[in-house]
Amino acid sequence: MVSESIFTQCGKYSRNEVENALASLLERFGGMKSIVSRGDNVLLKANMLSASAPDECVTTHPEVVRAAAVQTIEAGGKPFIADSPGIDRFSDVARKTGMEEVARELNIPCVELDDPIALPVAEGNVFQRVEVSRRAVEADKIINIPKLKTHAQMMLTLGVKNLFGTVVSQRKAQWHYNVGLRRETFADLHLDIARGLAPCLTILDGIRGMEGRGPSNGKPRDFGVLAVSSDPLDLDFRVCTLLGAPLEEFPLYRAAVGRGLVAKDARWDAAGLPEGTIIPPIELPKLDALHLLPPFLDRFGKRFLASRPVQEKKKCIRCGKCIEICPADAMKPTRAGDIEIDYDKCIRCYCCQEVCPADAVRFSKGLLLRTLECIRR
């Protein structure tokens, strides 16, 4: 198998167009039969972040998952669709995202990633114990199917970040709490999970994605791209470059370079797209540049320099998801139905913004971010 990422243009989610685009990409890898063996149990790890309709661009589109499942079945594999949503019930997520319908149509399982067990530790890992779903560890093969989106904490969520979804349910929030403000440390966790699970294939749904305040409250946008890769890290850096995002500000890139996993002077072009293909730069969320501070100043930075969450009272629907997800227990309801935030406890993990279905959590810019913006101007 080639060890590169291959891109192609794909303009819409019609069944034939997606199937043909994916088949043409897989031909460059020798076809799905060169990747999946007969009888393999194959986890199709879609992005099923929340109970959101496909056109909201929060989750992987079901037509891309369907095309991957069909290819797997034709190769003799036994696919199952799975993820572990952080808050919403899995049954609601599977129904609303269209995954349940795909599974029913193809007579394959659609199941929740549960039952956490320790991930085998790879050489060079930063974390010596990480627990993910048993279903992911025991699958014969993993096909990783992320959605192209921005992310309020990690800038972009693509192939590597999608595998964080194998961490079971609320344990994701606990990891946010454990790493605090250190985005590179969080990126190291993502790298450890990706290297431990080692997906045989990553299929990026970049036909229509999200920009702005992702991963759930940004703006849907057409990108017109489908990509296949044997290495999600390689894919992520090529996508970052294709979108005109500053690679040196991508926490995953900084973590990978720091660990010697990639060469700092490597080129990251989008092979397979017509020469001269230009995608207008993606609108990125504003990130506090707290990586400029040494770790021992994290507490000071959090209290006085970092942006902080603020409730948009007119938008809030009082669903309580932000309170439920908060790993630091920094949010609680008031008698008036508003949200009270303890900023001394708040770790600025952006979980509340990520799960809010009404886009009712905004971030008041911290002093450091405002200062840096003034300098750039």
Main features:
377 residues; alpha/beta; Rossmann fold; Alpha-Beta Plaits; 2 domains; two-stranded antiparallel ribbon; 14 helices; globular
Topology (elements, then pairings):
Layout (H helix, E strand, L loop, with lengths): L4 E5 L5 H13 L13 E6 L15 H13 L3 E6 L6 H8 L1 H8 L3 E3 L3 E3 L12 E3 H5 L2 E5 L3 E3 L3 E3 L1 H4 L8 H9 L3 H15 L3 E11 L7 E11 L2 H11 L8 H8 L39 H8 L2 E4 L9 H5 L5 E3 L5 E3 L9 H5 L5 E4 L2 H10 L1
Parallel strand pairs: 2-3, 2-7, 3-4, 7-10
Antiparallel strand pairs: 1-11, 5-6, 8-9, 10-11, 12-15, 13-14
Helix pairs in contact: 1-2, 2-4, 8-10
What does this entry look like structurally?
With 377 residues, the chain is of the alpha/beta class. The chain has two domains: 5-258, LarA, N-terminal domain (Rossmann fold); 290-376, Alpha-Beta Plaits (2-Layer Sandwich), CATH 3.30.70. The chain contains 14 helices and 15 strands. It is globular.
Task: Give a quick rundown of the structure.
The protein has 377 residues and is an alpha/beta fold.
Total domain modules: 2
Instruction: List segments where confidence is low: pLDDT < 50 over at least 5 consecutive residues.
Output: none
Structural class: alpha/beta
Report the CATH topology name of the largest domain. Answer: Rossmann fold
How far the N terminus sits from the C terminus, by CA atoms, comes to 47 Å
Helix proportion range = 25-40%
As laid out across the biggest beta sheet, the strand order is 1-11-10-7-2-3-4
Describe the main β-sheet briefly.
7 strands, mixed
Mean pLDDT: 90
Strand content: 15-25%
